[in-house]
C-alpha cells in the first residue's frame, strides 16, 4: 500500500511544474467550494424560508458568469492571467461578505451578492479552463481531472461536516448568522492562500487575438448542445441539495453529514478511473454518470423524504465527478481540433462555450421557478430534477456523435497537413491520434 502511494506521489512529481501548481491552487480553493455551493444557499434558505429566492440568487450568479467571461477576454490584454484568476477566487469571499451584511434578504441585496459571486465564478472558471487546456494534453487530461476530483471529493467529506456542525454549535451559543460570518472570514483567508500559490506558476496569457465570433464550424454546435444539457442540471443542482436537506432533514449538521455519505469511496474511485482510464473510455464514464444522476432523481421524486435525500446525495456524489471527468476532456479535445482548423484563439471557444452553459442553466432554474409558482414548492423540488435528469440522458447521444466526428476530423486534418507532419498545438507535440478518442 505504502509502495503504491509513493509511486503515485512520484508520478505527480514527474508532471510539469505548471501542472502541479494549478492542481495545488485548485485544491486549496476547493476548501471553500462546499461553502459557496451549499452553505450560502442554506443561509438564504434559513433567513428567507423561500426556495424561489435561492433560485433567483442562483440565476443572478449565472447571469454574472458569461458577462465576466467576456470582460475577462478584454482584461487578458492588460493583466496577467494569474492576477485575474486570483481576483476570481477572492471575489467569492467578497460576495459572501456582502450577503452576510444584509439586514434583510430582499431581492435587490440577493441580486447584488449573486452578481458578485457570478463575477467570481466568471474570472475563476474562464482562466482555470484556459490554463487547464493549455497545460494538459489529450493523454493526461483524464489523470488531471481524476486527481482534481479525488481531492474535491475528499474535501467534500470533511468540509461540509465541519462547517455544518460548527454552524449548529456556534448557533446554539450565539447565533447562526455569527457562525456564518466567521466562516466567511475563513473563506477570505483561504482564497488569499490559493492566490499566493497561483502566483508561483509560470502561466502565460492567451495570444492577443480576436476572441468574439458568432459563426463557428458546425461541429461546434454539437458541443454547445452538450453544454446546454450540462447547464440544465447545473441550474438546479447547485442549490437543490441544500433546499432539499433543509426542508426534509432540517439542519446544517445533517446537511454536512448527508454530503459526506459515500464520498470517500467516490474519491478513491475517481482517482483510479482518472489514473487508469484511456481517452477511449470517456463515453462509458459519461454514460455511468448520466445513469447515476437519473437514479438519484428517481429516488428523490419517488420517496421525497429524509431517506430519499440521503440516497439522492449518495448517487449524486458519484454522478457529478463522473460527468465532469468525461465532459471536460471531450470539451477540450473539440477546442484543440477547431482552434487549429479555424486558426482561432482557444479563449474564443471557452467564451462561446459559456453561452451554451448559460442557456441550459437558465432553463433549469426557470423550470424550478415555473413549477414552484404554478404548482407548489414541493412539486418543484420533487419533479423538476426528474424532468432534467431524463432530458440529460440525451447527452449520451450527443457525446457519442461528438467523439465519432472528432475522430474523422483529426484524420482529415492530419491528412491535409501530412506534408508538414501532424498538426502542432500550442502546448502539445501533436494532435491526439484517432485511437485515443
From TrEMBL:
InterPro entries: MFS, MFS_trans_sf, Sugar_transport-like. Residues 415-427 have a biased composition (Basic and acidic residues). Pfam families: MFS_1 (PF07690). Keywords: Membrane, Transmembrane, Transmembrane helix. GO terms for molecular function: transmembrane transporter activity. Residues 415-437 are annotated as: Disordered. The chain crosses the membrane at residues 21-44, 56-76, 83-102, 108-126, 147-167, 179-203, 223-248, 254-274, 283-303, 309-334, 355-375, 381-399. CDD domains: MFS (cd06174). PANTHER family: INTEGRAL MEMBRANE TRANSPORT PROTEIN-RELATED (PTHR23526), MAJOR FACILITATOR SUPERFAMILY (MFS) PROFILE DOMAIN-CONTAINING PROTEIN (PTHR23526:SF2). This is MFS transporter, YQGE family, putative transporter. It comes from Chitinophaga terrae. The lineage of its organism: Bacteria, Pseudomonadati, Bacteroidota, Chitinophagia, Chitinophagales.
